[in-house]
Protein: Molybdopterin molybdenumtransferase
Organism: Sebaldella termitidis
Amino acid sequence: MNNKAYLTNYDINEALDKYIKLLNIKESTEETETKDSLGRISAEGVYAKISNPFYNCSAMDGIAVKAVKTHGANEKNHIILEKGTDYEEVDTGDPIPESFDAVIMVEDIIKESETSVKIHKSAARWENIRSLGEDIVESTLIIGKNHKIRPVDIGAMIAGGISKVHVYKKPLVGIIPTGDEIVELNDNLKIGDIIEFNSKMFAAQVNEWGMESKVYGIAKDKKEDIIAALEKAYKECDVVIINAGSSAGREDYTYDAVSALGKVHIHGIAIKPGKPAILGEINGKPVIGVPGYPVSAYFVMENIVKPVISKYINFFDEKEEIEAVLSRRVMSSLKYLEFIRVKIGLVDEKYIATPLQRGAGTTMSLVNCDGVLEVPQNYEGYEKGETVKLKLLKTQKEIKNTLVLIGSHDPILDTASDMMKNRNFRYTLSSAHVGSMGGITALRNEECHISTMHLLDEETGEYNIPFIKKYIPGKELVLIKFVKRTQGIMVRKDRKFSVSSIEDIKNNNLSFVNRQKGSGTRLLFDYELKKAGINPEEITGYEREELTHLAVAAAVKNGDADCGIGVYSAANIMNLDFIPIGDEHYDLVMPVKYLGLESFLEFLNTIKSDEYKKQLDKMGGYAYDELGKMIYL
Amino acid sequence: MNNKAYLTNYDINEALDKYIKLLNIKESTEETETKDSLGRISAEGVYAKISNPFYNCSAMDGIAVKAVKTHGANEKNHIILEKGTDYEEVDTGDPIPESFDAVIMVEDIIKESETSVKIHKSAARWENIRSLGEDIVESTLIIGKNHKIRPVDIGAMIAGGISKVHVYKKPLVGIIPTGDEIVELNDNLKIGDIIEFNSKMFAAQVNEWGMESKVYGIAKDKKEDIIAALEKAYKECDVVIINAGSSAGREDYTYDAVSALGKVHIHGIAIKPGKPAILGEINGKPVIGVPGYPVSAYFVMENIVKPVISKYINFFDEKEEIEAVLSRRVMSSLKYLEFIRVKIGLVDEKYIATPLQRGAGTTMSLVNCDGVLEVPQNYEGYEKGETVKLKLLKTQKEIKNTLVLIGSHDPILDTASDMMKNRNFRYTLSSAHVGSMGGITALRNEECHISTMHLLDEETGEYNIPFIKKYIPGKELVLIKFVKRTQGIMVRKDRKFSVSSIEDIKNNNLSFVNRQKGSGTRLLFDYELKKAGINPEEITGYEREELTHLAVAAAVKNGDADCGIGVYSAANIMNLDFIPIGDEHYDLVMPVKYLGLESFLEFLNTIKSDEYKKQLDKMGGYAYDELGKMIYL
């Protein structure tokens, strides 16, 4: 265990400034056909070579005339014009023949003969003529330097006589994944294998930024191997990214490898996640060590790699910023600039941001998040209710068209989300799984539009309504019946024990995997334990928590625990046996004021559709006789 | 002149609904490697095939332990653990060896020997373990159907075991330019040639929408030729666009050609510009006739072609919308949905939208505009000061970083704009040329941040300040000295007449090209005429107006007029002779409150730079001794 490299804690802006100065990147340019230049960045200001139009031409189909010969024409006094001397036929875009100086449009002339027309309106000089340069005058700036070329720019450049344009050459970014356990995705994965996917995400990011990428084969965690891979890559590419091994752990050789071939300028930046990034250089080419955890990797790519390598093209698309109200308190370390992933909902015309879990390994949180809150270094964080600036990862329109659901999990939410996007790609269901009580909190805090829950009141045997009345008093809410579903004990088909009731878990000393506190399923389990007179401490694994039915099912399926509790459909999806313990009401609850939201109406139509009900039948364990019934509270 | 086709005036939404129903487009799908799927649209919901991680693994570098064996360890009571029985070394991502159930991180252990460690903290069960499915649980929805795939989606899909993904096949869109005078841009253009550039803009638009394009050769305006081109294209492509010939004029054969091979469903839509669009079909494939004027063409592409052909991929990026205050009244016809191009400035935290000229031929207005105001059919328009919704063509960030300049034109503004983008691509100078008096109006209406002007007070001989005091009283403004520049008479070098003064224009009966009313240059010319005792009516072409110095110079250069008035640099750029008539002060004026705007500071640094002054010397006719001096008014 040789912690050879001391990690610094550079402020990110200082680090970038220092690194970029040391690198002193020189852009290369190339000439491309204007028509092929979409999305490229101009390496020079483009000035029109010719005017458009480059001669005076007719703006209409009609006749070119001498204005002076038309004077006096009106409704009462028609004037006859002779072809050749007084007029010539012109179509839109035709040049104005010499000595003519106005155009009368075809609708305003009456044909007298093959060679004469009658007019009843005079023409002013230059009327209906597009004069030379009306659109673009020779030598006018069409687009400036460092401009990302759009379709309209291509049109205007060609109109201005520019057939070729100088743009920056796209740098080639080499990406080297490293690690002994890292493997390409394949059909024969074994325990201990770690699927390599960061390099593919990096390559896509680099392409999205308008550059080229090349992913190299996986280098083993040996110093020689990493040096060999790096040597090849830096010769072939303009930039090299080494993924993982950038920490100071047992097998982190990136630092040594970069040092062997070039120089590490900075190791360790005051950001979280992403601190162990390495900023190095080999023969003037940037070599950047990016940490392995996908979320750390993503933020290092976006906040360090992107601004550095964008120097090759003098451009990058900046993320849009909005202001949003925080629905929860966010604490942050004074030592780092921290990137907090947030979900954003447009609730009552205000953006509400809800922080997501911070784990650095959670790829799905990147998929699901809508924006990023940056808590600066030396800040302790932000209070609930505070207005903060966010960087958006989606468009405001997408966020506006998203129905934010926070509450209890069921696999049928995934089905609804997928099916809703299929019906109309504009609308999105975004669901966060925090359990039924978490849903109630979110409703009370106005963090979401709608919530899902299944909370049994032990006194009355009634579902959900008693809890809503107790915890969210004074709000106009509507409960929308969703499904009745069957909960039960999930066990592997090849189990070597028997289980037919809650009691058997204790009696046969089976290991159990539980749901998180505040979830309706956990409350149900506690209720069943109490009924059976069992103390939670008597259940092995009672403290092991998972957040969703599928996660519990997966733990059981993989032999991580003997049994767990969850809905029938989850057991079915994972091909587990299922011992029912009871049916329950899984309902939707939302403020009445959101009933008219477009995204909600799309969601409601989705879940009421025959297609959706067919899917529920297929998944099994759901009754939907009351689906869509509304109870105003 | 056979107006064979009667143009209807369909409401755009009705037209689209009807046409899309009749077409009944069937998407095709294809499988692509997940890693290559960036920007593609998913043709199915993607559910994880495996969990990530797919086994319990260490979240840290450290040792895997049995939690129960660590209980009781604290600062005072260290516990010694033996390798093999009590612990195993694990790195981040390593599987947790059977029978162990927690990880202690490397920082919290003290090595005692090669086979033993000391700990001073107990571990809870599952501590520092990433449990199976912590990130992605098998069977969870990763992305829904009809979703545009992003880098993070690629990462998550591969992590979830998805190596290939079903996406929609990109439709191939054939584009046929037509017209007898239409030519490809070349070095031997002659009067009457019209450069073909629409097809290149269309192709870029289609590519931007995530589809493939193929541009065909130019078809002549003959029915047979267009039919032949169309027949070839519709067999090779999924969609065909015919450019121009969609009107009902003399040589508009698109209607006939589509009818000959298939059917025209709709001809004429109630939009402006863009009315004569043709929506047709050949063997189930959409064939759309798009009008020839670039602005009409652009709006038909964006508002008709895009929503129709996006049905092949069930997706399109919608433009973001913002609310803005109109700085001028906008009148519109009741007969059409009208698309009004606007410039947008963020002035005092409010978006201010200023309508641009409406000509359908002005490609540059598409380049320069920031957004589009849609005035619905049956609306007369909007009043000045009204809040309207706009569709954005730029990002809000770009608009925020744009310094809006409205006022008098000089070629050095192009130079500044180009150079500013070169210094820092984030900041943009957007300048609209409406003359000095127009600039004063814009300042008064708060349509812009800054204005340029050169207005001579005949009484005092003072420049600009008397006008500001008179026309914009009561505002805190600052005048920033820009340049002293030389105005004069521009004539061709190969002229066959002599001219050395204003008087010669009249005396030699030279044709003249003037600047628009309200421009300082026109006021100067009027002042000089008055001094010389010449009546404007004695000047041939006095009524012929151009908007910029370069436009006047271009008209002179091309023999359109014998002479014009303008600045030395414009004459120099166009290689004209120049007879000076006097120097004048060309200054900047802005409200004091904008002095701190980032975009202004970047602009100020640009024009104060040596590089810029060098450029002024090169262009000629400018003195800049006072440049940057501020006079508070």
User: Anything to note?
Assistant: Chain B touches chain A through 123 residues (CB under 8 Å).
